[in-house]
């Protein structure tokens, strides 16, 4: 067995696929940045990200997949489901080995696994567009903290750039320790240490605009007033708004402490 070590990026994974074919590596598993200690008797192969090699693989996939099918591969990578790299590689092998488009071959496990993972990412991306709650800092930066199951920041940046084009904002993924920052012109990826414990009165006083606490309380009162207690359906509510999102939703924090 060969552990293929890459840098954790999509381009790095594509570069790894190129070299697996180039050097005829077999029985491969993938690991990000360093070898897995669980595979004691495997050999290791380190891949340096090479954009030219990555583009060669992408071009090959473009010739065999629709635009939607190519997007599914990328969305699968962002899903971060268990053994996602192996799932993708088995699919790519099936694509390259077939003389026709395989996207509708739903009886094939590789095709079905890609669809399931891509659908998971799309669902999480859609939820993040609805569940992001911004706070305003003293230097007039709107920031929001999220912890999505999938790595969806690359997919939602265009939505927020178009919707909030006239203000600076930062959306920070506390789970993956990076964010996307909009400076009124472009969106850039930033890696920063960020305090995710942002709901206390002391924290708001130190970081946020002086009116921020007032607006948060106003939003909570509005949210409470529009709810009709007799028509509450908690099961349906949890279906559309799972509890794992609540700690970053202003309306779900009953009061500041």
Q: What are the main properties of this structure?
A:
46% helix; 9 helices; 2 domains; 3-stranded parallel beta sheet; 5-stranded mixed beta sheet; 14% strand; 257 residues; alpha/beta
Explain what the structure shows.
- The strands form two sheets. The protein has a five-stranded mixed β-sheet, with helices on one face. Strands 2-1-3 form a three-stranded parallel β-sheet, with helices on one face.
- Helices cover 46% and strands 14% of the residues.
- Helix 3 crosses helix 5, helix 4 packs across helix 5 and helix 5 (109-131) runs parallel beside helix 6 (153-163).
- It has two domains: 2-124, no CATH class; 132-252, no CATH class.
- The chain is globular and about 55 Å long.
- The relative contact order is 0.08.
- With 257 residues, it is of the alpha/beta class.
- The longest helix is centred in the middle third of the chain and has 23 residues, at 109-131.
- It has helices spanning 10-22, 51-64, 67-79, 84-97, 109-131, 153-163, 201-207, 212-226, 234-240, and strands at residues 2-6, 28-32, 43-46, 135-136, 142-146, 169-173, 178-182, 187-190.
- It has nine helices and eight strands.
- This is DNA metabolism protein.
- It holds the Pfam family DUF4130.
- Residues 83-251 form the DUF4130 domain.
- InterPro entries: DNA_repair_put (IPR023875), DUF4130 (IPR025404).
């Amino acid at each position: 067995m060969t552990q293929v070590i890459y840098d954790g990026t999509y381009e790095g994974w594509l570069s790894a696929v190129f070299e697996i074919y180039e050097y005829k590596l077999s029985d491969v598993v993938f690991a990000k940045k360093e070898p897995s200690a669980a595979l004691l008797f495997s050999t290791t192969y380190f891949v340096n990200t090479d954009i030219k090699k990555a583009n060669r693989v992408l071009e090959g996939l473009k010739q065999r997949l629709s635009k939607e099918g190519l997007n599914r591969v990328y969305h699968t990578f962002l899903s971060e489901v268990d053994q996602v790299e192996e799932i993708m590689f088995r699919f790519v092998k099936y694509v390259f080995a077939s003389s026709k488009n395989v996207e509708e071959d739903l009886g094939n496990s590789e095709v079905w696994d890609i669809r399931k993972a891509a659908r998971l990412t799309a669902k999480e991306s859609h939820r993040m567009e609805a569940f992001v709650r911004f706070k305003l800092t003293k230097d007039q930066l709107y920031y929001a903290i999220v912890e999505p199951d999938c790595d969806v920041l690359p997919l939602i940046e265009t939505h927020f750039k178009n919707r909030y084009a006239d203000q600076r904002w930062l959306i920070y993924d506390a789970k993956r320790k990076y964010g996307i920052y909009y400076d009124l012109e472009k969106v850039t990826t930033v890696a920063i240490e960020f305090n995710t414990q942002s709901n206390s009165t002391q924290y708001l006083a130190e970081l946020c605009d002086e009116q921020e606490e007032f607006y948060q309380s106003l939003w909570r009162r509005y949210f409470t007033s529009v709810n009709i207690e007799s028509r509450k359906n908690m099961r349906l509510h949890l279906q559309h708004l799972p509890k794992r999102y609540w700690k970053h939703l202003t309306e779900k924090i009953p009061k500041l402490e």
